[in-house]
UniProtKB/TrEMBL annotation:
This protein's name: 1,4-dihydroxy-2-naphthoate octaprenyltransferase
CDD domains recorded: PT_UbiA_UBIAD1 (cd13962)
Keywords: Cell membrane, Membrane, Menaquinone biosynthesis, Transferase, Transmembrane, Transmembrane helix
Phylogenetic lineage: Bacteria, Bacillati, Actinomycetota, Actinomycetes, Actinopolysporales
Keyword Protein transport found: no
Annotated family: Belongs to the MenA family. Type 1 subfamily.
GO molecular function: 1,4-dihydroxy-2-naphthoate polyprenyltransferase activity
Gene3D superfamilies in the cross-refs: UbiA prenyltransferase
Gene: menA
Membrane topology of this protein: Multi-pass membrane protein
Transmembrane portions of the chain: 38-58, 87-108, 114-133, 145-164, 170-188, 216-234, 268-289
Main location: membrane
Recorded catalytic activity of this chain's protein: an all-trans-polyprenyl diphosphate + 1,4-dihydroxy-2-naphthoate + H(+) = a 2-demethylmenaquinol + CO2 + diphosphate
EC number(s) per entry: 2.5.1.74
Localisation: Cell membrane; Membrane
Length: 290
């Protein structure tokens, strides 16, 4: 049986900035549109955290039963390492999706936007079929695009819309920034796993692009939010606070551009997620002041 520490590791708390940051960004842009609603913001956060935790356990289960995680460069997984039964991990994943669904229904009830039920259903399906099912899209090079859409436009604009009943340019900019940051995290993860993914037949975008172009893609994605900061700052000067996050991406960019591989890329994932969170918080403060 897996220990408590191994189950906690399975949660992958280090991925939570990818869930928290879009809700902060979406709530901040809602506040800018005079529509901030604390209960809806907190429920949106529950949805986001439940979904990303469910995704983590679902990936652990699906990759584990396929044998993809038998040889790993990063942290060991519950199923792949044999420390937990596949059925138990699957049960936890489904439980997380259930919590996300309940919180999502509460959001729809309070906001009255029942048509967004389809977005919730697509989000849960996207979480499962990333590595689940007979033809997981994460194994065919579509993972980064899906992450951009779900953690960018869907999360940010969804959070904004249920609170403010509208979408504006600041919201769209924040959505693009969050999507770029989230995709950068996955690109770094898949860059690290190129050798083992090739061995197991997992054709991620990194495997398809190759090492050099994947590194170029990472740098492009991680710098894109600061272009958004510049454009937003032309209209709302305090939004330039988003540049504070630039300090956190310097080290990851150095590691990626100098050719680091394997475990040396783990700090890149961590720091990119933290940069995403800091960008969201700093930009939220800037938009509120503005």
């Amino acid at each position: 049986m897996a220990s408590v520490a191994e189950w906690v590791e399975g949660v992958r708390v280090r991925t939570w900035p990818n869930a928290v940051a879009p809700v902060i960004a979406g709530s901040a842009t809602a506040a800018g549109a005079a529509g901030f609603d604390l209960p809806l913001a907190l429920l949106s956060l529950v949805v986001a955290l439940s979904l990303i935790t469910g995704v983590n356990f679902a990936n652990d289960y699906s990759d584990g039963i396929r044998g993809t995680d038998e040889v790993r460069t990063g942290p060991q997984r519950l199923v792949g390492s044999g420390s937990a039964r596949p059925g138990s991990v699957l049960g936890v994943a489904l439980g997380c999706f259930g919590i996300a669904a309940i919180a999502g229904l509460a959001v729809l009830y309070l906001s009255g936007h029942w048509w967004l039920l389809s977005l919730g259903a697509v989000s849960i399906a996207g979480a499962w079929f990333y590595t689940g099912g007979k033809h997981p899209y994460g194994y065919a090079g579509w993972g980064e695009l899906a992450v951009f859409c779900f953690f960018g436009p869907a999360a940010v604009l969804g959070t904004m819309y249920v609170q403010a009943d509208s979408i504006n340019g600041s919201g769209i900019g924040a959505a693009v920034a969050m999507g770029a940051f989230s995709s950068a995290v996955l690109v770094a993860n898949n860059l690290r796993d190129i050798p083992t993914d090739r061995q197991s037949g997992k054709r991620t975008l990194a495997v398809l692009l190759g090492d050099r172009d994947t590194r170029t893609l990472y740098v492009t994605l991680v710098l894109a939010p600061f272009l958004i900061t510049t454009l937003t700052g032309l209209r709302i000067t305090p939004a330039l606070l988003g540049y504070l996050a630039l300090a956190l991406v310097i080290s990851p960019i150095r590691r990626v551009t100098r050719g680091d591989t394997g475990l040396s890329l783990l700090p890149v994932l961590r720091d990119t997620g933290l940069a995403m969170l800091l960008w969201a918080v700093a930009t939220a403060v800037g938009l509120t002041i503005g």
